[in-house]
Amino acid sequence: MPNRITGTGSFLPATVWTNQDLAKRIATTDEWIVARTGIRQRHIADDTQSTSDLALPAALQAIAAAGLQPSDIDLIIVATTTPDMVFPSTACLLQAKLGIAGGPAFDVQAVCSGFIYGLSLADHLLTGGPYRNALVVGAEIYSRILDWDDRGTCVLFGDGAGAVVLSRGQQPGIIASRLHADGSHADILKVPGHVDRGAIRGDPLLRMDGQGVFKFAVRVLADVANEVLADAGMNRSQIDWLIPHQANVRIIDATARKLALPPEKVVTTVALHANTSAASIPLALDIAVRDGRIQPGQHLMLAGVGGGFTWGAVLVRW
Ligand code: UT7
């Protein structure tokens, strides 16, 4: 049985910090941030909100869009790098907030590729297992792992959540997917600190070699999209929408150029919410579904890359 995305949802916390707001706190400008990244603003969770709190409204919206109730969900995967706790998983906490129990619930830690990893996993579990409706969520509160004095990183990220329901269906939905990792690039994007006997050992904030990440991202996003197309026996001209990880418009534009896709076939929402890591692809998808860009029968290429390094793509018929 093929598996289809039957509903999408998203949530952004109410507080918005514009580039101008950041320019009052650190040595940056709106012009620099827009020119180098395309980002204009980011949403910031308040101190009372946890990652599962952002995931909940996104999940409920996706479940409603699928015409389902929370009780219909029998598998939950949350992709996050900023979990509520060391354990239990954010997926278990979300399950409890949804008022359901019994089905498996677990987190995926693949940083900005987490949603692609989660969606591909859910697809395989639905195909091979007894599950009918999987909830796959990307949710993050990056504002808590940023060094707000490091202008090279803090301007790039934001908080948010996106979700999809993946259901067994009669029509092809997910056509093909590929996942990859190469841990030898761990050092170019990392939060090296960890909890050790009640203390934080090492640096608990995000560190990045921006140019290293940039070059790596452009190469692997295009490569993995081509790989998935080949698996599906399809070609680039059949892609109606490229929905890439929303990190930076220059990475997105360069990837689209390598795939010979015109800008009008690319969903770009990073200006509105900055890089929300695992949440960015489902957020962009939900925005483009709700504004009517994505129409039945179209082919979507979802492609992500992130720390690890990890990368992957999922080809979807809508
Ligand atoms: O999910 C993946 C997450 N990571 C990414 O998406 C990052 C990918 N990398 C990038 O997007 C780019 O490398 C950045 C946007 C991070 C940086 O752009 P860049 O063109 O690679 O700039 P740079 O690091 O070479 O820095 C150029 C200049 C430097 O000043 P000097 O040394 O030339 O005087 C930086 O200090 O820009 C300066 N700079 C800033 N200036 C104003 C760095 N950050 C800022 C800032 N505002 N926020």
Task: Give a description of the structure.
By secondary structure, this protein is an alpha+beta fold. It is 32% helix and 26% strand. It has two domains: 167 residues, Peroxisomal Thiolase, Chain A, domain 1, CATH 3.40.47; 143 residues, Peroxisomal Thiolase, Chain A, domain 1, CATH 3.40.47.10. The chain has a five-stranded mixed β-sheet with strand order 1-7-6-4-5, sandwiched between helices. The protein has a four-stranded mixed β-sheet with strand order 8-15-14-13, sandwiched between helices. Helix 4 links the parallel strand 4 and strand 5. The longest helix is centred in the C-terminal third of the chain and has 23 residues. The chain is globular, with a radius of gyration of 18 Å. The mean pLDDT is 97. Bound molecules: oxa(dethia)-CoA (UT7). Oxa(dethia)-CoA (UT7) binds next to helix 2, helix 6 and helix 7.
What tags apply to this protein structure?
10 helices, alpha+beta, Peroxisomal Thiolase, Chain A, domain 1, four-stranded mixed sheet, single chain, 2 domains, binds oxa(dethia)-CoA, 318 residues, five-stranded mixed sheet
CATH topology name of the largest domain: Peroxisomal Thiolase, Chain A, domain 1
User: Pairing-aware structural class of the strands and helices?
Assistant: alpha+beta
Each distinct ligand: oxa(dethia)-CoA
**Helix count?**
10
Mean pLDDT: 97
Low-confidence stretches: none
Number of domains: 2
CATH class bucket of the largest domain? Alpha Beta
Can you tell me the CATH superfamily of the largest domain?
Thiolase/Chalcone synthase
The main sheet comes to: 5 strands, mixed
Number of strands: 15
The SSE order reads: EEHHEHEHEHEHEEEEEEHEHHHEE
CATH architecture of the largest domain: 3-Layer(aba) Sandwich
Shape category: globular
Spatial gap, N to C terminus: 16 Å
User: Over the alpha carbons, how many angstroms does the gyration radius reach?
Assistant: 18 Å
Major sheet: arrangement of strands: 1-7-6-4-5
Strand composition percent: 25-35%
What percent of the residues sit in helical stretches (DSSP H or I)?
25-40%
